[in-house]
Amino acid sequence: MHQLRAQIDEAVSIISSQWPRRPTTGIVLGTGLGDLAKHIATEATIDYEDIPHFPRSTALGHKGQLVCGTLASVPVVTMEGRLHTYEGYSPQQITLPVRVMKTLGVERLIISNASGGLNRKFASGDIMVIEDHVNLMWQNPLVGINDDQMGPRFPDMCQPYDAKLIDLALSIARRDNFVAHRGVYVGVTGPNFETRAEYRFLSRLGDAVGMSTVPEVLAAVHAGIRVLALSTVTNVSLPDKFSTTSGKTVIDIAAASEPKLRSIVTGVLEQAAAHPNEPAD
């Protein structure tokens, strides 16, 4: 992690030279959810390729740029396009932007993703507020020599997703009259969608499955950042009633559900702006 510190400092230096403000919230936008960035009062846009050590985003529907500005009067730094293990990146590379956000000043991280529903009570287009996860990626960004200045050797994961932010997200959905579930996210490597046998197995472990989020959450918790993760359910698996899934379908359904995601994100930030000194615990 000592080499990682140097990489973080180099990336922060470039970002701060183009956008000198201190963001309090970081946002990671998942597949099909990039339209949220259009609602940011943008002050700087920085391509990943212009930031030292940032990998390039190659996934469908991911632009690969940082959007810096304000949303609901809160200074935010937003990843418009995330990184995945199926692109060939290591967990350490995937989570470098989270480490950079922490150094920039981020105290709260809002992560979004598109997922496949495992819970048969879910429907396409529903939002799931993640309350816990199962890591089936078989990789962890914290493996290796630990830098105690960046976080503890053995971070506790009994509650990686912030309980207050979960309750707030669900209350915003009720206020705005759309469906939002509380559930467990199963992280897998991908890039293939699951077989019917895998869907049956995974449905015993959680409520939705996807190919991201877990590495970023592990790094964020290690760094002491509060986390809220929102998953757009783009399809519900019915392994005994065969149907195919495509990347385009996932993007289209996620994009159609973006207003729900935006409602929660802006609502959370409005609360943060109204109560800037709210304690983390």
Structure characterization notes:
- With 281 residues, the chain is an alpha/beta fold.
- It has a single domain (2-274), classed as Rossmann fold (3-Layer(aba) Sandwich).
- It has 7 helices and 9 strands, in the order αββββαββαβαβαβαα.
- It has helices spanning 2-18, 91-104, 163-175, 196-202, 214-223, 247-256, 258-274; strands at 25-29, 41-47, 65-71, 74-80, 108-117, 127-135, 180-187, 208-210, 226-236.
- A 5-stranded mixed barrel has the order 5-8-7-6-9, surrounded by 4 helices.
- Helix 3 crosses helix 7.
Instruction: Please name the CATH architecture.
Output: 3-Layer(aba) Sandwich
> Would you tell me the structural class of the helices and strands?
alpha/beta
Beta-strand content bin: 15-25%
Please state the CA-atom Rg, rounded to the nearest Å: 18 Å
CATH structural fold name: Rossmann fold
